[in-house]
Structures are given as structure tokens and as C-alpha cells.
Amino acid sequence: MKQAEYCIILSLDAVGARDFKFLSEQPNIKKLLVDASYSTEVLSVYPSITYPAHTSIVTGQYPNVHGIVNNTKLQPRMEKPDWFWKRRAVKKNTLYEEAEKNGIRTAALLWPVTGGARISYNLPEILPNRPWQNQISVSMLNGTIPFELELNRRFGSMRKGVSQPQLDNFVHASMLYTIKTYHPQLMLVHMTDVDTNRHLYGVDSKQANEALMRHDRRIGELIALLQEEGIYEKTALFILGDHSQKDAEWVLYPNYWLREKGLIQVKDDRIKSFQAYAHNCDGSCYIYAAKGLGREEKKRIVQAVQELKECYPWAIKRIYSRREAAQMGADGGCACMLEAEEGWYFLDEMDVLTAKAEVGCGIPHMMKGVHGYHPDLPDYQTIFIASGCGIQKRVQIGRMSLVDEGPTIAALLGLSLGETAGRVLDILDAGESLC
User: Fold this and answer.
1) Could you please report the per-residue DSSP string of 186-253?
2) Greatest distance between any 2 Cα atoms in the chain
3) 353 and 381 in one domain?
4) Domain check: are 251 and 241 in the same one?
5) How far apart are CA 15 and CA 134, in angstroms?
6) What is the C-alpha to C-alpha distance for residues 423 and 421, in angstroms, rounded to an integer?
7) Which of 19, 213, 367, 385 could tie 38 with a disulfide, CB 3.0–4.6 Å?
8) pLDDT above 80: residue 431
9) Which residue has the higher pLDDT, 132 or 300?
10) DSSP string across 2-31
């Protein structure tokens, strides 16, 4: 099997199959697609949110196996729960660390769940979440300090917190500089321009389309740099999404309902104790039971959730049992799981039961576009584009899953992730030489 000397994985957060036609008309992606192999039928994982999805990409496993079952941790008593920022939370082998073990130099820019990971040049996605923390300290403690300082010195002025497009402009400049200066053999890059604008303005908004066009320009500049460096013919380029998004108009707050049913106890606007707690994944929501409950208490939780669905059938599409959630790859440690109807999503606060999804209204976490729904929904799949060294030309892959991506890229690099839930896609060049 022909092996790539260099491999770049560019994750475009929230870019879905619905965007493929628009992207294929943009100049740089249009040119790339002439010889690329691709799929517009890529199933995300459940829940279809960023951190579980990206961890599935690099492990070839579903969330209940690799351990990243949500973006945020279950911390009911914290006003702002921690995200799964750190590699130590991942229970399975990863593509980047398998590469490092085999002498392949790696780099990662804002790739989720890589804090403290074994990566040669690592700028992890991590934010301060304690009063005594700041962005510099948490980044330095979890990444490659000299590398991070250098990127911040050269390009830090481009950023404006997590605002877009400034953040992706910073990531893009850092990516080009890292390739030119350090020549990593495996590079993982996470860009959130489209995701941010869809959350704020909606799926088919002008702002989201402008973000897609910015991605095309960034890809053009990446390809131009690879050509200037004389390594384009030696490089395999993967452009992929992690999930799609859907427009939303209303929010349901299950914890308000659970509190009213006496299953959550509050003092001074903070949770004092609970028997059941709802932990949202946008378009889906885990219901967790406190440890040590008896059978009757658990029945009470199930009854309360069923009553919620009966009262709001237009908001809740389905209740999945613990076993059904685990079969879909979600957290089997939950009591049950809710799936929202289109146009609805869930949040954790408990001051009201429902609210209009109006961004800028002063209510926390309001969004006009969301994800987290079941990956099999119509018009909700994402994309996978593979091009360059070691990749067959013009293969239309058809239906596939995020868990197929890691095993395929590993095989291209002469690596193995071991036993995975995914398969090696039939797009690799059968030749035996390096490009």
C-alpha cells in the first residue's frame, strides 16, 4: 500500500452534506474535487456534537467506548461545567499518539480533547474555567509551551477571544507557519468558523455561507503553500466535517420539570442535591439518576420524563432507554435519553420550562442553529474528502461513518489503531512505494 509522507486532517466543524454543492462550486475545492475521493453520506456519532465526534475520528470508536460522551462533563453543581479538554479522559488509542510511537512527527491546532496529549507541536482547544485561571496558563499547562508561545507572539494579535472569523484566521496562519517551519508528518487542524456562525445566525444564513467561502480560500492557500514547499505530491489531504446543524426556534429545559417534580433540590439558586439531572447535548439530552437510588425512586424518574413527553410531544421526539442509548454509541450510564423534535433543543438551566431561541436576548446559551440530533436524520449527514498521495482518484465512497476515518488514515500512514468499530475505506492506493 502506498504511504503518504505527509498527512493533513482539516476538520471544518458543522460543515455538512447540505454544503457540498455550494462548496463544490468554490474555486479551490472545485479544483481539489477533480481527482479526490469523497462521501456526502457520512454518519456522525450520537450525540452528534463536537468532542465525541472528533474523538471518534481519531480512535475509530463510538463515544461509549472511547469515553467522551458529551462536550461537557456531568457536574450539576457547577454553574459552568468543564469541557472534556484533556487527553487523559480518552479511554482508547488515538491516531496522533500511535503516530508518535512510530516516529511520525505530529502537530495539532485546537483539535478537541488533546490537552496534555503526546503531540510534538500541540496547541490544544482549552479555556480557563476557574477564577484563578487565564488563557495563557491553561494553554501552557496542556500544550507544547515553546510552540504555543511562538504562535502567540507571531499571530496572537489576530485573535479576538473565540470570535469568528478571527479565531480561524489565527488557526490558519498558525497552520501555514507550522507546516513551513516544522514540517509535521501528521497534522490535525480544527476550524469552527461555520459552526459559530450557524449557532448565531442559522444554518442557511448569509454569515454561514460567507464562512464556507472563507474555508475555501484557506484551503487554496494551504494547497499553494504545500506546492511552494515542494511537498504537495507527497501529501494526503483530508477535509472532513464532524456533524451538520439544523435550525432551531425553541428551547426545552428538562431540569425545570425535574425540579418541579421534586427530583432536584435547589438552595440559593444552586443545586443542593438531586435524584435526576438532565445534561444537554443540544438536540438530544441525557437524563442521569443519582447513584444509590432504589427501584421506586428510579421508576419515579422514568414516570416524570414520560409525563414531560406527554405534555410536550411537539418538543420531544423520542425517549431512548439506557440500553438503546448504549446501542447507538451514547452513554449507557444514563437513565434514559431524550431526542428533540426538529426546531427544538435542550439546555440545562431550570428557571423556565420553555423559551424562544433568540440570540442576544440575555438568556445563556441561546442558539439559532444546533446539532446533537440522531445522525440518521434526513439532510443531516456530513462530508469526507480525501485527496493526494496514497489516495485513489475519483472514488465515490457512499455511506460511511466518522469511525471509519481514523482506521483509514492510520492505514495510509502504515499504522494500526487495533480493533476498532470502523473499517478501512477502499480508497487507498495499492502501490507499495512512498509518494
Assistant:
1) EEEEEE-HHHHHHHHH-TT-HHHHHHHHHHHHHHHHHHHHHHHTT-GGGEEEEEE-S---EEEEEEE-
2) 68
3) no
4) no
5) 30
6) 7
7) 385
8) no
9) 300
10) -B-SEEEEEEETT-BGGGHHHHHTSHHHHH
Regarding whether 186 and 310 lie in a shared domain, the answer is no
Instruction: Based on the fold, state whether residues 332 and 406 are members of the same structural domain.
Output: no
Closest CA to 393 of 33, 11, 39: 33
Give the confidence band of 44 by pLDDT, cuts at 50, 70, 90. Answer: very high
Q: Are 207 and 200 within 8 A, CB to CB?
A: yes
In total, the chain counts a number of residues equal to 435
DSSP H or E run through 412? helix 405-412
DSSP one-letter code for 46: S
Joined together, the cell numbers standing for residue 325 give 442509548
Residues facing residue 67 across a β-bridge: none
The predicted structure's pLDDT at residue 316: 98
Confidence (pLDDT) at 288: 98
Q: Are 162 and 155 a contacting pair, CB within 8 Å?
A: no
Distance CA 369, CA 217 (A): 24
| Spatial CB neighbours of 181, under 8 Å, sequence gap ≥ 6 | none
Give mean pLDDT, residues 343-363: 94
Query: In terms of domains, do 60 and 209 share one?
Result: yes
Record the pTM. 0.97
State what percent of residues in the chain have pLDDT above 90.
91
Residues 6+ apart with CB under 8 A from 11: 54, 57, 111, 188, 189, 190, 191, 240, 241, 242
pLDDT at 313 over 80: yes
Burial 380-395 (b: 16+ CB within 10 A, else e): bbbbbbbbbbbbbeeb
